[in-house]
Amino acid sequence: MTPESRTDPLPLPPGRGPIEVQVGELGQMYDAMDPAPFRERDLDPKAEAFIVGAARELRREAPLALVVRVSRRAPMPGEVAAFQQAVREHFAHGAATMRARLRQLFRTGRWALLIGLVFVAAANLIGDLLAEVVGQYQYGRFLHESIVIGAWVALWRPMEIFLYDWWPILGEARLFDRLSAMPVQVGGADAHIN
User: Fold this and answer.
1) CA 18, CA 163: separation in Å to the nearest integer?
2) Nearest to residue 178, comparing CAs of 170, 189, 186?
């Protein structure tokens, strides 16, 4: 009996929040549409969603551990090692993807801010000119204020990016970092966690 298929308790490092998954065969944890070798394969989208969702429910500072219980065919030691590496690489790739998305968002935010500031300056200038031209009429001030308000609305998107949009993406990257570093254990369906 290999250590990976034993039925005695699976030892977990102290204080780890276990995320438990039960499958018939270890291969069910992989995306069936991904033709890459096991070590490079993606996790099944449903398995990933379950693992990520379970990790979100635990405290942010709680260390994580993944326990996969296999009920039908005990995996070979090589399969277990390949799976552990695949989990690490899958979530490390997810963290890198989130960070790339964050960089792209900030790049978009900088351009949106530049465009918005230029638009505000131009709108203020145009509003002032229009107010002077039609200033003798009652609606000159109304026209000026409308243009200025519209110009400030143009800054909404960069403000939204820099105030609100970035931190959920950073949170996802940090969660994926934690998931890529968690210990992964594989055992029989009747194994118990210490």
Assistant:
1) 34
2) 170
Check: CB of residue 194 under 8 Å from CB of residue 10. yes
Give CA separation, 107 vs 75, 110, 177, in Å: 45, 5, 23
- Whole-angstrom CA distances from 160 to 108, 112, 150 are 11, 10, 16
Give the Cα separation of 79 and 38 in Å (integer). Answer: 8
Other CB atoms within a 10 A radius of the CB of residue 9 amount to 11
Closest CA to 158 of 101, 119, 194: 119
- Over the stretch 126-172, which tens digit does the pLDDT of each residue have? 877 877 777 666 677 777 778 888 888 888 999 999 999 999 999 99
Specify the residue for token string 């039609």.
134
What is the token pair recorded at 59? 């405290």
Sign of CA dihedral 156, 159, 163, 168: positive
**Do 21 and 66 meet the contact criterion of CB atoms below 8 Å apart?**
yes
Q: The tokens of 122 are what?
A: 């131009």
pLDDT of residue 7: 39
